[in-house]
Design goal:
Structural class: mainly alpha
CATH class of the largest domain: Mainly Alpha
CATH topology of the largest domain: Serine Threonine Protein Phosphatase 5, Tetratricopeptide repeat
Largest sheet: none
Order of helices and strands: HHHHHHHH
Helix content: over 70%
Number of strands: 0
Radius of gyration: 15 Å
CATH architecture of the largest domain: Alpha Horseshoe
Number of helices: 8
Length: 126
């Protein structure tokens, strides 16, 4: 675990709040929350895991939704997986997501997640 993630984890443990990340840009904030989610899953810190899921659900975008879906699958975050699927299916974003680098990487590294996303989309279209 990176020292910054450990420090942020301690902050959550003692305050029951995600740390302020004002000095980080948006992408760095998302990355920190992803690392915190991994730590929360590894050390069975359900409250921190829930806070991280909530945060990531609110910050989904076309470029990162595929990789976030894979992260959710790997760390058993059903709400985050559902939010990713809803994001992809809403507002005709599917073409943009399928063209993103994140989705290209997802197809190669986690094909089961890719198939799961497409199955959800097909069920919804029926």
């Amino acid at each position: 675990m990176q020292p910054a993630v450990f420090k942020a984890s301690l902050h959550v443990i003692y305050t029951d709040l995600l740390p302020s990340m004002g000095k980080l840009d948006d992408e760095e904030k998302k990355e920190m929350v992803r690392h915190l989610l991994v730590a929360a899953d590894r050390y069975v810190m359900e409250r921190m895991k829930m806070m991280c899921e909530d945060n990531l659900c609110k910050t989904l975008d076309v470029q990162t939704v595929a990789t976030t879906s894979a992260l959710a699958d790997q760390h058993h975050c059903s709400r985050l997986k559902d939010a990713c699927a809803e994001f992809i299916m809403s507002s005709n974003r599917l073409d943009d997501v399928l063209a993103s680098q994140g989705y290209v990487h997802l197809k190669k590294s986690c094909p089961s997640v890719s198939v799961n996303i497409l199955e959800r989309i097909m069920k919804r279209l029926k």
